[in-house]
Amino acid sequence: MLGVDHQTGRTPTAAGPHLESLERQLSCPICLELFSKPVLILPCQHNLCRGCASRLYETHNPYHYTGGVFRCPTCRYEVYLDRHGVGGLRRNLLVENIVDICREQQARDSSKCASTSGDGGEPLCAEHEEETLNVYCRTCQVPTCSLCKVFGAHKNCEVCLLSDVYLSRKGELARAVDALGARRDGARAAVEELEGLAKRVAEGGRRQRDTLTERFEALCGVLHEKRAALLLEVAQEEEAQLETVRGLIERHQGAQRDIAALLQTALLAVEEQPPAATAASFLLTSGELLARIRTAAQRVPLPVPKSDREGKEHLHCAVGTEQAEAALRSLDFDGERF
User: Fold this and answer.
1) In a domain, 16, yes or no
2) Cα separations in angstroms, 315 against 231, 246, 318
3) CA distance 51 to 327
4) How wide is the angle at C-alpha 11 spanned by C-alphas 7 and 12, nearest 5°?
5) Structural domain includes residue 172
6) Could you read off the pLDDT of 96-149 as tens digits, one per residue?
7) ω into 301 cis (within 30 of 0)
8) What is the pLDDT of residue 97?
9) DSSP strand E in the chain: where?
10) What is the mean pLDDT of the chain?
């Protein structure tokens, strides 16, 4: 009897080490069995049974209704999934077909027409224990013996030499393996190319960000310098105009004091009730007082700046920033490829 493969947990087939090696390549890294349909291909190009992939995904993402992530059990590559979960992964039909071929071979090896001799030699027919399996039944697609063709269950079937089917099947399997290997190599090359593209895109993005940051810092520097210069001009103009206004205030205050003193003198003269003997002295002094009042009346009011009298701003900022603002708002990223 054949022993048990301690790595896969399966019994090796009678087809030899080549089929056993192929079975190991077509085994799920989780359940350690041949892949069960549907077979899903991960972004890292490794494969999983859908059932195993679902259990692995749900174990690592208990709240997986909006997506999640798990690691490939073979290479530890992080696989990100959206809300569709493992349903968003593609099926590997080529692997499924090769697994079907392996399962068919296993079924033939364990068919009722075949058994293995106790000494590990050629497989023997289960119906005719002394006969080796030396022909292949095309109708039933199993190896059988010559007596089964002549007298047994396969007497009405189409048979051929085992060597013919062996070479054909081995060539078919070899071509399938080569095709799968080519697909794997192509996928690996595509991944390497895309990873290089991702690095170039990231580097281009970093350069664009650095360039934009430098240019906008330069613009901000110009704006700060211009603002400081304009604020200085405003402060200087403000101080000049305040100096003029302060001078006018002092002149008005001086006139106000002179008029107050003159009014007080005039009021005293008007309110005084002199006797008739002093009327002459009043008339002598009143003439000079009237002349002083008329002169003061002509000096007041002193001129006041027109803008102040109309309640308007005396300082007016005439900086035209509309075009600059429009130009800044029109700045945009042209979407050029990195």
Assistant:
1) yes
2) 12, 16, 10
3) 59
4) 90
5) no
6) 888 888 888 777 665 544 454 445 567 888 888 778 888 899 889 889 888 887
7) yes
8) 87
9) 39-41, 47-49, 68-71, 78-81, 90-91, 114-116, 123-125, 135-137, 142-144, 159-161
10) 80
Say which CATH number the domain at 87 has. 3.30.40.10
Query: With contact defined as beta carbons under 8 Å apart, do 116 and 1 qualify?
Result: yes
Instruction: Tell me the β-bridge partners of 123.
Output: 116
Count of structural domains within the chain: 1
**Angle CA 47–52–53, to nearest 5:** 60
d(CA 194, CA 89): 19
Single-letter amino acid code for the residue at 154? H
Q: d(Cα 100, Cα 108) in Å, to the nearest integer?
A: 12
Name which of 160-174, 192-206, 272-286 the model is least confident about.
272-286
β-pairing verdict for 142-144 and 123-125: unpaired
DSSP 275-319: -GGGHHHHHHHHHHHHHHHHHHHHH-SPP--HHHHTT--S-----
Q: Is it the case that residue 336 has pLDDT exceeding 70? A: no
Residues in the chain: 338
For helices 17-25 and 93-109, angle between their N-to-C axes, nearest 10 degrees: 140
Return the amino acid letter for 320: G
Sequence-distant (≥ 6) Cβ neighbours of residue 164 within 8 angstroms: 136
**Residue 74 sits in which domain range?**
8-93
Question: Looking at the domain assignment, is residue 128 inside a domain?
Answer: no
- Residue 8, pLDDT above cutoff 60: no
How far, CA to CA in Å, does 16 sit from each of 42, 176, 211, 253? Answer: 30, 18, 64, 122
| Predicted confidence (pLDDT) at residue 175 exceeds the cutoff of 70 | yes
Within-domain flag for 51: yes
